[in-house]
Amino acid sequence: MTDTDGTLFAQVRDPENRADPYPLYTRLRAQPVARQDDGTWVASGYAAIRALLHDPRVSSEDLPPAEHPATGNPIKDFFVNPIKDWITDRHRPFIFRDPPDHGLLRRQVMGQFTVARVRGMKRRTEALVDECLRARAGATRFDLVDDLAYPLPVTVICEMLGVPREDEARFHAWATQLATALEPESRNDEDLRARNTETFDAIAAYMRDLIREKRRAPADDMLSGLATTKDAQAGRMSDPDLVATAILLLIAGHETTVNLITNGMLTLLRHPDELARLRADPERAPRVIEELLRYEPPVHFRTRLTRAPIPVGDVTIPEGVPLVLLFAAGNRDPARFPDPDRFDPDREDNQHFGFGGALHYCVGAPLARIEAEAALTALVARLREPRLVEDPPPYRAGASLRGPERLLLDIRGIA
Amino acid sequence: MRDGTIVVAGASLAGLRGAEALRRGGFSGRLILVGDEPHLPYDRPPLSKHVLTGEVAAGATTLPGVGALDAEWRLGTPAAGLDRAGRSLLLADGTRLPFDRLLIATGARARPWPQADEARLAGVHTLRGRDDAAALAAGLAARPGRVLILGAGFIGGEVASSIRALGLPVTVVDPEPAPLARALGSVLGGFMAGRMEASGVDLRPGTRVARLEGDEAGRVRRAHLAEGGTIEADLVVVALGAVRNTGWLAGSGLSADEGGLSCDGACRALDEAGRPDDAIFAAGDVARFPHPLYGGRPVALEHWGNAVAQGAHAARAMLDGPDAAGAYAELPAFWSSQFGLNIKSLGLLEGADAMAIVQGDPGTGRFLAVYGHEGRTIAAVSINAGRWLPAYEAPIREGAPFPPITGGADQPAPAPFPPGLPSMQAA
Fold first, then answer.
1. What GO MF terms are annotated (chain A) (predicted)?
2. Which class would CATH give B5-47+59-109+243-325?
């Protein structure tokens, strides 16, 4: 029977359902593409998401309609604010851009995410994990979020970008604040918007100075590369695009990885057999991580905009409506994954949406995999008899970037 | 069927993937793979690319999974005949291999230069197998003064690209008006021609080679053109397509010729009267099957993905019967990398009467073209835009109106035009 409840997606966003949104996803999938009462369309079936991800009529630009001068999302609105004289909507970060501009910007960023640079971060990441664990030596209680999952990705992305170590603390604060802007709810919260705008101005000003410094004295880091490399087609990246890109990389490289590590450890603790197997055989880590990306992905959905009417199966999504691609629901679609609610790292053919897909497929995926592998293999090897203190743990506000606010573990020490 | 003996004739991609699917499907009997080359199954796509540029050794192309397969290998012993009544495969060394089921995956070989004595000249190469690639790579490593490539199809183009990457002078001749014209039409062919010439290829479209000339030592020196004139070259690559390895089936009563071994949708081989043989199956380049997406027209696909999917499909039909497997309907798909371009294709372009650039712009070197036939979408080709291609899979499968998608973010109203396929020029 078709579930005609047009509030299902509103229920997904309700913090009450943060710990376990999956039953709602199952109900949503009964209609793989469904209109919600608020006019949003939600794609929750695997095949529909895959088709829409690749469909050129689906736009990532999500420009505010003329009658609403702002989307309510400061990260986006900053670029459409006419008062900011040197940044316009032409300089949004490439996650919010369509072809052909998207491709030009993305290519320049990909050019900096070199294999050598990402590989080089592997050892560094392992050392950072080791530092985090040593700092808590002797502890019997461990908060995975504060003690490891949160500090690790910020340090990694700051080092990749080339942010001086002494400025990292400020980045932690900025990244935390700005991540709230990616949630639909933030649009209606005046206080939050004001704080986000303030944060955005601060980080943009900081980035402008840092870029100037990188131009003056380039180092072997991504920001220096972006600031000094000239693309054959696009030329040199403009300052507004550079600022936008740097901020995007900071947030995307940070908030998502926290969740991958935390959700990962939570899932392993809920599946002790799998935790024991990973401990005994660290080479299972890539399989475990791919399955985590399917089973408990760090990003549950992304919102797009339709540029034309799009037929999908037996419905047609109208032009000009917000379209939610509910990746986490597609990842549990029984039509695509046998026994989808089972956590099974031995699963073959695991083409999940854990990193999205198509043109906007996560640029930082290789880095995320390295960080998750370093963190999870060290955690299962070195935390002695870890036990969850709270299950479910308390969650952060986000329904899209979904993850625990803290993950308290009782342990018998750290090896 | 889960036990007994299954023989796989052909130890390349389709045979290997078929054999793996048999084991995965629960086949616990005796599994024998027969190969004409002495090598374990290897991957062919690198042979025209990284192997020629020296980045990958020809011997380093063995396919993953080979070691894990529980099977007996008969390598270096080609299949030489088929005794259908006696349910036995005959090998060139005289061995007789009885089977309960046979999977024929003998593939294809490079079409040789028609004049055999000229083809034997030192420095004249074809490219199909690992040994061919090793020989060609060695020839290139000797830094020939000029390389001549006969044929501007996919292999010719990829080889030319690798040779330019090595910094060697290369001439490509082809009777068609543009490279890849037979496969992609002269519109995309024209785009490719620009790329090839910009990369320093001496491209001679609309040109035929009448004969190759060697020196006293039996080494190729020059090619004489049908239109008159010569091209000096001390290395020649013959890239004139492939012929199916079906000669060994002569006298077996199966319907086979240079164009392939006919089979039905369940991959069962057909006899000369068109009746399926329940014990003999075919997959990969050698299999000519009726494609349901193209009106049941028999097609034989030389595609990597087809070898994988059809091998698995044949395995399913062998284990669970033709009804359980259903009709093989994999959407044809292939890719090629040359001159810094990643070319990907979905569907079959044959018979297309219109095309449209629906995304991107050839001026930027990044675009996607769809092809139509009588108002329906039949195929799509992406150039450096592979991530755009999956959107067109469903419209091609469904035969959606052409062009299938309009209102895209960067190309709202595409204008159709003729693709310039050879079939159209003949008509």
1. heme binding; iron ion binding; monooxygenase activity; oxidoreductase activity, acting on paired donors, with incorporation or reduction of molecular oxygen
2. alpha beta
Strands lying side by side in the sheet with B268-270: B72-75, B30-35, B5-9, B101-104, B276-282, B268-270
Task: Give the CATH number of the domain where residue A128 resides.
Answer: 1.10.630.10
| Eight-class DSSP state of B323 | H
Mean pLDDT of B91-98: 97
pLDDT tens digits along B106-126: 999 999 999 999 999 999 999
Q: Which of A52, A57, A321 should be substituted to probe chain B, the one whose Cβ sees the most B Cβ atoms within 10 Å?
A: A57
Q: Is the bond into B98 cis (omega within 30 degrees of 0)?
A: no
Q: Do A56 and B408 touch (CB under 8 A)?
A: yes
- Look-up: residue for tokens 């081989």? B269
At a CB cut-off of 8 Å and minimum separation 6, what does A310 contact? A52, A55, A57, A58, A316, A317
**Residue A254, helix vs strand vs coil:** helix
Q: Which of A182, A309, A326, A301 is nearest to A247 (CA)?
A: A182
- How many domains does chain A contain in total? 1
User: Which regions of chain B carry the CATH code 3.50.50.60?
Assistant: 5-47+59-109+243-325, 116-240
Instruction: Give me the DSSP letters along B343-401.
Output: EEEEE--TT--EEEEEEEEGGGTEEEEEEEETTEEEEEEEES-GGGGGGGHHHHHHT-B
Question: Would you say the ipTM is above 0.85?
Answer: no
In-domain check, residue A244 = yes
CA distance B75 to chain A (A): 30
Q: Does A312 contact B at CB distance below 8 Å?
A: no
If one looks up domain B340-420 in CATH, what number appears? Answer: 3.30.390.30
- Residues 6+ positions from A211 with CB-CB distance below 8 Å: A223, A227, A239, A242, A243, A246
A155-173 per-position pLDDT tens digit: 999 999 999 888 888 887 8
DSSP string, B44-104: SGGGGTTTTTTSS-GGGGBPTTTTT---EEEET--EEEEETTTTEEEETTS-EEE-SEEEE
Chain B residue numbers touching A51 (CB-CB < 8 A): 390-391, 394
B210-to-A68, A85, B150, B323 alpha-carbon distances in Å:
71, 68, 11, 51
In chain A, % of residues over pLDDT 70: 90
A415 domain residue, yes or no: no
- Distance, CA of B288 to chain centre: 13
**Residue holding tokens 């998207």?**
A102
